[in-house]
Every structure is written in C-alpha cells, then in structure tokens.
Specification:
- There is one protein chain.
- The protein has helices at residues 17-26, 48-63, 75-88, 97-107, 119-124, 126-134, 148-153, 160-175, 192-199, 208-222, 243-253; strands spanning 7-11, 32-36, 69-72, 93-95, 112-117, 139-144, 180-184, 204-206, 236-239, 261-263.
- With 269 residues, it is of the alpha/beta class.
- It has two domains: 7-95 and 210-268, Rossmann fold (3-Layer(aba) Sandwich); 98-208, Rossmann fold.
- The chain has a six-stranded parallel β-sheet with strand order 4-3-1-2-9-10, sandwiched between helices. A four-stranded parallel β-sheet has the order 6-5-7-8, sandwiched between helices.
- Helix 9 links the parallel strand 7 and strand 8 (204-206).
- Helix 2 packs across helix 3 and helix 4 (97-107) packs across helix 10.
- The longest helix is centred in the N-terminal third of the chain and has 16 residues, at 48-63.
Length: 269
C-alpha cells in the first residue's frame, strides 16, 4: 500500500466533515475520499443489522478507490459496525468513539460525564463501555438527541428551534452535575457554539473529531503510511443524494474549496 494513497472517510451526511476538517488540520499531507450517505440518514434510529449492511456497502465503494485507511466518521456506525468491518479488511480502520471516550476520561475532574448522541449510539452503551475501561470510577449519563442531525442537515445551526431543543436535551444532564459533555455524534460539533451558549462555560465540551484525527495520524505513522507531501493533496467528495446541497454546506465548513461533489448509487455496492 502506497503512503500516497488516499484516506477513506464516511458518515451518514455532513457531520463527518467535522472529522475531515480536523484531518486536514492535523495531517495536511493526506488526500481524502469522503462519502456522505445523505439518502439514508439518519443512522441513529436504524437497527444494528441495517447499519452493518450500509457500512459494508460504503466500505466496498471506498476500497474501490484504493484507500489506505478508513475512518468511520459516524458514532452510530462506529458503535455497531466497526469491529465487523475491521475483521474483514487488511487496512487500518478507526472509529470516532474510542478517541472521544479517552479524551473525556482525561478531561473530567469530578468523574461525571454526559454523552449526547443518536438513539443508536446511546442505546449501544459503547461510550459507557470505553469510559469504564479507561476509568472505572467515572459515572456516565447518556442522552439521545434525535432531532440534532436533521436540524444540522437543514443548516439550522443557530436557530431558536435548535437552541430550544439543546436546552431540552441537556437540562437533565446539567442537573446531574456533569463537568464534561461528549458530543457523541459527528454532526454535533457543528452545534458547538450554540451548545456552549446553553450549557455555559463550566462544562468541558469534548469533540471526538479532533481526537480521531490525532489517532489517525498515530495509526498511519505506526503503519508507515503517513504522507508528508502536503503539496499534492487531492480531495474527492461523494454522496448518495443531494450533491449540490452537500457541496454548499462543505464549502461553509472546510478550509479548502470543494469544487465538485458526485452522486453515487451506493445500493449497487
């Protein structure tokens, strides 16, 4: 496998762009092939079996692009499908849950950690599992926030409706006296500033996207796959629906210009 090969990154929609943004910052020499499964989001309300099927289809698409590593930039898919596809591939595959859990365990002072995520991520209990492995003394309080993904996908980042939903979803976590809150869905960092307005400055917000990029860098270095030629990156973007809408959103987030986004019939893979 060539070190100049691209990295495959995928998510259910635009949320994974928060991970792409951090990869571009932390390891700027890497080319990225991104796939957003916009036709089938949200993932959070779907079964484990369905998520594994979707993940396998996307992985086959990315492997067809000769990627050297895959980042599952989706907490739900990381929870339900990561171990399955890791066992089926001979390239590095990382998710976003473990890096985020590690950062939260290191951040908390009082051992009380809140996790917000999709229904699937919270139901899986995977953050509880990883956090307990890292620090058995922590208490974890999870809260599913199913409306956040559609609000982000519609671009309602700082809308009064979004602020009200943040207030409703986080109120019981604040009452638990948490000092750390994990943004347990890659869409949620796009709401970071709005969440901060609601929860205040005393609660540390953990963005797993940043930690995932750092972990990816370490994995590539250990495997001898890191590309240090940052003058020849070639990023490509694909979605299962709504290419123009995605391109507009991506250009509002990423530090590079997204010139083209292509539609892919992912059901063919």
């Amino acid at each position: 496998m060539s070190s100049k090969a691209p990295i495959g990154v995928f998510d259910s929609g635009v949320g994974g762009l928060t991970v792409v943004k951090e990869i571009m910052r932390q390891i700027p020499g890497e080319s990225i092939i991104y796939f957003g499964d916009t036709a089938r989001l949200p993932y959070g309300s779907k079964s484990k079996e369905t998520i594994i099927t979707y993940t396998r289809q996307i992985v086959r698409f990315l492997m067809g692009k000769n990627v050297k590593a895959i980042v599952i930039a989706c907490n739900t898919a990381s929870a339900f499908a990561l171990e399955t596809v890791k066992a089926e591939l001979d390239i590095p595959v990382i998710g976003v849950v473990k890096p985020g859990a590690k950062a939260a365990a290191e951040s908390t002072k009082n051992g009380r950690i809140g996790v917000i995520g999709t229904e699937g991520t919270i139901r899986s209990g995977i953050y509880n599992e990883f956090l307990s492995e890292t620090n058995p003394q922590v208490q974890v309080f999870g809260k599913a926030c199913p409306l956040f993904v559609p609000l982000v996908e519609e671009g309602l980042i700082d809308d009064p409706i979004t602020m009200e939903m943040i207030r409703r979803y986080t109120s019981e976590l604040i009452e638990k006296d948490i000092d750390t809150l994990v943004l347990g869905c890659t869409h949620y960092p796009l709401l970071r500033k709005t969440i901060r307005k609601i929860v205040g400055d005393k609660i540390e917000l953990v963005n797993p996207a940043y930690e995932t990029a750092i972990t990816l860098k370490e994995v590539l270095t250990e495997a001898g796959l890191e590309n240090d030629d940052n003058l020849k990156t070639d990023h490509k973007f694909y979605v299962s629906d709504g290419a123009e809408k995605f391109k507009y959103f991506a250009n509002s987030i990423l530090p590079c210009e997204v010139v083209e986004t292509k539609d892919v019939n992912i059901e063919n893979y």
